[in-house]
UniProtKB/TrEMBL annotation:
It comes from Roseibium polysiphoniae. Keywords: Oxidoreductase. This is Flavin reductase. The lineage of its organism: Bacteria, Pseudomonadati, Pseudomonadota, Alphaproteobacteria, Hyphomicrobiales. It holds the Pfam family Flavin_Reduct. Residues 26-167 form the Flavin reductase like domain.
Amino acid sequence: MNMQNSSHPVSFAPDTENTRLLRDAFGRFATGVTVVTTASQDGPVGITANSFSSVSLDPPLVLWAPDKGSRRFSYFEAAEHYAIHVLSHEQGELCQGFAKNAHAFENLEHSINEQGVPLIENCLARFECARVAAYEGGDHLIVLGRVVRAEMREGNALTFFAGKLGHAAHPAADEK
């Protein structure tokens, strides 16, 4: 599948036949600016997180680590399904919104998947996950999830460096 001339997302269910696509989707993560979302008894919630990593292509696994001291921790500690959204350079306000407010979905284009998880639109990549395990990690909980659906698109990444948001250009943009 070629994405070079496509502005439409490429959606797929990861399997052993398309590990290149999953590797490419993982490659959309620049330096750690994500928003993780889940359903809760209080409605849809999200949190800005920089503790994201791809773990395995077969099976398709990712991890992230919510802070136990966060007021939102209980939502994510209990979540059996969640989505990790890798943000584009145009989503700085979205990043800041979820850093301040767990319910920052007002005026935000999003949908709800079959598991009730809110899905933010127009991200560089999105990984819909089912929780596999959780491990103690000091003041964080390390949450391991199986990617059940992924989506990616072209664009520049939102980055976080030295306490400031920035962006990283997509390598293909340099060739134009």
